[in-house]
Specification:
3-stranded parallel β-sheet; 4 helices; globular
């Protein structure tokens, strides 16, 4: 599913009959930012998260550090970079192992 309003995205996440496999969100969204969306979603159910942004300030960086299961991408994002990030995120979350070297990842 795709949303332009992060509050609607969170509502859909909460009420989904089938749990979401992954969240991809822009950090700077109107209403609720992507960090808050990810934080609230992860408080309900663990899921891998990819956040992307064109600008990240120190306060946002501090909030992101508290999140687990996340990948941060900087705009502009090339399609192959997004695909690799989705694969890596899903692999590490669902296997518990780093794709690059096979070491265990903190869940």
């Amino acid at each position: 599913q795709s949303f332009t309003d992060s509050r609607l995205a969170l509502q859909a996440y909460i009420s989904a009959e089938t749990p979401f496999d992954l969240i991809i969100a822009d950090i700077n969204m109107p209403g609720m930012d992507g960090i808050k969306l990810a934080t609230e979603a992860l408080a309900l159910r663990k899921v891998p998260v990819i956040l992307y942004t064109g600008f990240l300030d120190p306060a946002q960086q501090h909030k992101i550090e508290a999140l687990k299961h996340k990948i941060i991408l900087n705009k502009p994002i090339m399609p192959d970079e997004m695909i690799k990030s989705v694969r890596r995120s899903m692999h590490e979350f669902y296997t518990g192992k780093d794709m690059a070297d096979g070491r265990k990842v903190d869940k």
